[in-house]
C-alpha cells in the first residue's frame, strides 16, 4: 500500500507548483482586467444621479480589483473586502456598475469553496448592497428593476458557484478512487507474484528431492559394487557428480525465484511476465521447472544404479498431455 501513497504524494508534489503558478496567473489576469475595465468604464459619462470618476474613485476601483489576487487563499475575506470597498464606492456617489463585477466573482469563489450557510450569507450581502445602490439614487432608478437585478444576478452566480464546487469535489473523489484502485491492483499483482514464486519453488523442491534420491541410490550402489566392479562404481560416481551439479543448479534457481524481484532482473521483468522467446533457454535461471520431457534422463540415471525400469506411453504425446506408466523391478 505504500507504493500507492508514494505515487499519490509524488503526483501531488509534481502538480502543485504548476497549479499554484497557473492559479496566480489567472487571478492576476482577472484582477488587472477588472481594474482596467473599471477605469475605462469610469471615464464614461455616468447615468443621472451619479458623479464622474475622480482620483478617489479610481483608487477605490484599483483596490476593489486588486483584492481578487487573494480570492483562492481567503475567499470569504476577499469577498468581504471587495464588497466593503464597493459599498464605500457607492457611498461616495460613484456609479455602482463600475465595481459590481469583483464582488460577484468573490461570491462565486465563496459558493464554490465554502459551505452553504457562508455562501448564502455572501449572496444576501451582495443583494443588500445592490438594493442600497438603488436606494441611493431612487429618484433616477426603477426600483422593480433594481430588485430584480439584486436577486437575479447573485442567485445565478450562487448557483453556478455551488455547481462548480460540487464538480470539483466529484473530480477529487474520482482521483482518490483512481489512486485506491491502482494501489489495489499493485497489491494484487504482488500477491500473485508471491504465490507464483511459492508454486515454482515447490516444483523445484520436488526436482531437487528426486536428484537427491538418485544421488543416494547411486552412492549406495557404488559402495556395494566398487570392490567387485570398479568400472560400475566409477560410472555411479560420475552419475552422482552430474546429478549433484544439477541439484545445485536447481537449488540456485529456487533461491533466485524466492528473493529476486523486478528491480533485480537485468531485463526488468518479473517471474510472472511472459518470456519474449517461444523456446526459453534451458540454462536460464528463471526458466520453468523441468517437466515430463526429461523423464527419460531420470530413468536412465535410475537404470544406471542397477534398477530395471520400463516406461510405457499411453496415447499420442501432445505437449504435457501424456499418460505415463512406469514400473520398476529390482
From TrEMBL:
Chain ranges of the Signal transduction histidine kinase subgroup 3 dimerisation and phosphoacceptor domain: 196-259
Catalytic activity: ATP + protein L-histidine = ADP + protein N-phospho-L-histidine
Record keywords: ATP-binding, Kinase, Membrane, Nucleotide-binding, Phosphoprotein, Transferase, Transmembrane, Transmembrane helix, Two-component regulatory system
UniProt KW Membrane keyword: yes
Uppermost EC category: transferase
Biased composition annotated in UniProt, kind: Basic and acidic residues: 259-272
Domain DUF7134: from-to ranges: 17-159
Domain of life (superkingdom): Bacteria
InterPro entries assigned: DUF7134 (IPR055558), Sensor_HK_TwoCompSys (IPR050482), Sig_transdc_His_kin_sub3_dim/P (IPR011712)
Enzyme Commission number(s): 2.7.13.3
Chain ranges passing through the membrane: 77-97, 146-164
Annotated segments matching region Disordered: 259-289
Keyword Phosphoprotein tagged: yes
Annotated Acidic residues bias: 273-284
Cross-referenced PANTHER family: NITRATE/NITRITE SENSOR PROTEIN NARX-RELATED, NITRATE_NITRITE SENSOR PROTEIN NARQ
Protein name per Swiss-Prot or TrEMBL: histidine kinase
Organism: Streptomyces virginiae
